[in-house]
Amino acid sequence: MTALPTSGRAWYLVARPDGWPVPDDVALREVPVGEPGEGRILVRNLYFSVDPYMRGRMSDAKSYVAPYELGKPMDGGAIGEVIASRADGFAVGDHVLHGLGWREYAEFPADRAVKVDAGRAPLTAYLGVLGSTGLTAYVGLFETASFKEGDAVFVSGAAGAVGGVVGQLAKIKGASRVIGSAGSDEKVRLLLDEYGFDAAFNYKNGPVKEQLKAAAPDGVDVYFDNVGGDHLEAAIGRMNTFGRITLCGMISQYNSTEPPSGPRNIGQVLTKRLRMEGMIVTDHLDLRPRFVEDAAGWLAEGRLQHRETTVQGIENGFDAFLGVLSGANTGKMIVSLDH
C-alpha cells in the first residue's frame, strides 16, 4: 500500500483586497494531511477551478455565499482522485467532483463528493461545460431568460466559460441570431468560426452601444449579462419589447472602488416592459441531471464545443485567478496540479 502524504500546499486568504487583488492578499502554505475519518474520504486534487465570483468572496460584504475567512484556506470546485476512503460507495481510484479546491489534498465527508466518469468526458469538463459553468449557462438561458425558438440573443463576455456555452445552447435550440462580445479579435474569431455565433465584436474596438447596434439591427430578445456596466446599458437600449435579461455576472465592477454610475437608461426597462432577473446557479441544482444528460449528448454529437485555459502548478493558482479577472482566459480557466 502506498504511504499517504503527511502534508500538502493550500492557498490562504490573508488580507481582503481593496480594488484589484495583489499577491500580498494571499499565501501558499504547507498544511498537514491526515487519514480520513469515518464516513470521509481523502482526495488528491488533480484540477481546481478559478472563477470570477471568487473575487466577491474575498470581500466580507454580505452576499449569496459566505466570504472566505482570513487565515483559512480558500475553496472552490475541484476534481480529484480518492487515495483513502472510510466511506461506503467510494473506493481508492475513484474520481470525484467536490468543493475543496485551492489545495493539493482534501479530506472531507463523502456525501460532499460526486463521482464522475472519466470515460464519458475529460475530467476537466466536469469543472466547465458539464459542471457548474455549463449548468449556469443552461439555467440562465432556459429558466431565467425563458428562451424560446426564434429569439435573438446577445451574450457579453461570450468567450468566457459561461458565455461560450450560452451562445451555443441558443443556436442548438433555434435562436434567430446570436451575438457575442469579447475582449480580443482572436476571441471574436473563436465565437464566429468555432462556436457558430452569427455576429461578434471586440468591445475594445469602439463603444459597445454602437457595435451592438450594428450587430443586432433588429434588436435583442434575450440578453445574458456577464459583464455589467456599458454592456448592460447598451443591451437595454437594443432590447425589443418584452425582452428578458439574465444578470449572471458583473465582472466589469468586481474590482471597482466606486459605485457604478448606471445603467443610465434604466427607465427603458419600464417602457419596453423588460424582465431583468439575477440568477445564482446553486438555486437550481435540481436541474443538474437533466442538464448533464442534454449537454453530454450535445458534446458527443459535436454540437457543443468548449475551450479551456490551463495553468500548470498550484503555485500559479493565484496568477490564474488574476487572469480570469483580466480576461486572459479563453473558456474555462483551470489549474492543473503537479504531483
Describe what you observe in this structure.
Helix 4 (185-193) links the parallel strand 10 (177-182) and strand 11 (199-202). The mean pLDDT is 93. Strands 3, 5, 6, 7, 8, 15 and 16 form a 7-stranded mixed β-sheet that branches. It is built from 9 helices and 16 strands. With 339 residues, the chain is an alpha/beta fold. The chain folds into 2 domains: 7-128 and 307-336, Alpha-Beta Complex (Quinone Oxidoreductase, Chain A, domain 1); 132-282, Rossmann fold (3-Layer(aba) Sandwich), CATH 3.40.50.
Reported CATH architecture of the largest domain: Alpha-Beta Complex
**What's the level 1 CATH class of the largest domain?**
Alpha Beta
Estimate the global geometry from the Cα principal axes. globular
| Percent range of helical residues | 25-40%
The tally of strands reads 16
Instruction: Give a quick account of the main beta sheet: strands, pairing sense, barrel closure.
Output: 7 strands, mixed
For the terminal residues, how far apart are their CA atoms?
Answer: 18 Å
Q: SS-based structural class?
A: alpha/beta
**Which fold does the CATH topology of the largest domain refer to?**
Quinone Oxidoreductase, Chain A, domain 1
H/E series: EEEHEEEEEHEHEHEHEHEHEHEHE
Q: What count of structural domains?
A: 2
Poorly predicted runs are none
CATH homology group of the largest domain? Medium-chain alcohol dehydrogenases, catalytic domain
Strand proportion: 25-35%
